[in-house]
Amino acid sequence: MTRFFIYIISFSMLLIILTASSAPCEEYSRVYGNETIFKDTTWSGKVLIQDIVTVFADVTLTIEPGTVIMFEKRDTNGDGFGENEIYIQGEVIAIGTRAAPIIFTSAEKVKRPGDWGAINMMISEDKRNIFSNCVLEYSYRGFHAHFSAMNLVDCEIKNNFLAVQFQDSKVTIKGCNIHDNNQGMQFRDSTLLMEGTNLTNNNIGIRCVYSEVDFRGNEISGSSMTGFRARGSTVEITGGKVEGCRSGITAQDSSITVKGSMILNNMEDGLSLHNSDTKISGNIIMLNGDDGIFLENTTAVINNNNIFNNAKYNVSLEQPGGVDAKNNYWGTDDPDKLDEFNFDKKDSGSLGEIDIGGYFDTEIHLTE
What we know:
Shape: elongated
CATH topology of the largest domain: Pectate Lyase C-like
Structural class: mainly beta
CATH class of the largest domain: Mainly Beta
Largest sheet: 25 strands, parallel
Distance between the termini: 84 Å
Helix content: under 10%
CATH superfamily of the largest domain: Single-stranded right-handed beta-helix, Pectin lyase-like
CATH architecture of the largest domain: 3 Solenoid
Radius of gyration: 26 Å
Strand content: over 45%
Number of strands: 40
Number of domains: 2
Number of helices: 1
């Protein structure tokens, strides 16, 4: 009887060892170390990345719906961030479906932002690089492009240190949900078309430098710092919402147009504009914790908006130049109270004048 039990225990232990040793082959359809893909390749099932995988120039990597790409954490310099990534010099086509999204995630048992590096597109500007119905999580800088084209459609990008970063690139983002990242988006010297995308509960929503931005029907909410910050850029914001951030929209040395949008319930200024050229029309700007609109050395035309119930002032000037703010609704039908709601030369002789001629005594009905 004793020998029988010894035999059973030994056989069980051997079975466990054999099962453990064969698990990677059974669990993953492909396992990559430090490798380069030199020919067109298709991924499906589960793929494990243990180092840096390079997609060589003129090679297309196709990823099928439902594929899960998992990255082990490899931190050789001890900075706490993983280094494993996909480095794309060719082209990637990752088109999932709503029922079977493609998932890029950490292979760690306890997953944390920064466990792996990025989907890194480098000098791939004449390629398509399409990511549709993908989920990307727990990376250091998520989707990253440099001198490349990048198209993100209906993707969820969450729990990353930085969700989307690009430079010298042409990027289109449509219908995405970018949430709960340390930083949502950071880019410079690039062109961005962004439509129907939500950026929610990121410390910083968007920060851009020296770029051209066409921003249509997007929502930014819950940023603990800035919702949208632009410097040296040309930005057009249409039909969007910036709500519940520390500061709403901030621009410096930029040309910025805001129309048909809602900027409300931000802790500080709704719009804070410095050394810029600005057109603001058809918006609702209200319930912001400081000024609705703060202007410093900025040329501004502010017409046909509802601007009211901001805690400090609706419009505040810190400049000698005046502002065309005709045909707005300011939250009252009492002309004697209008001056109380704006800060200009009546409050300090060194400032310019806010021209509120043709003001409305009821809210303007706004349509996009």
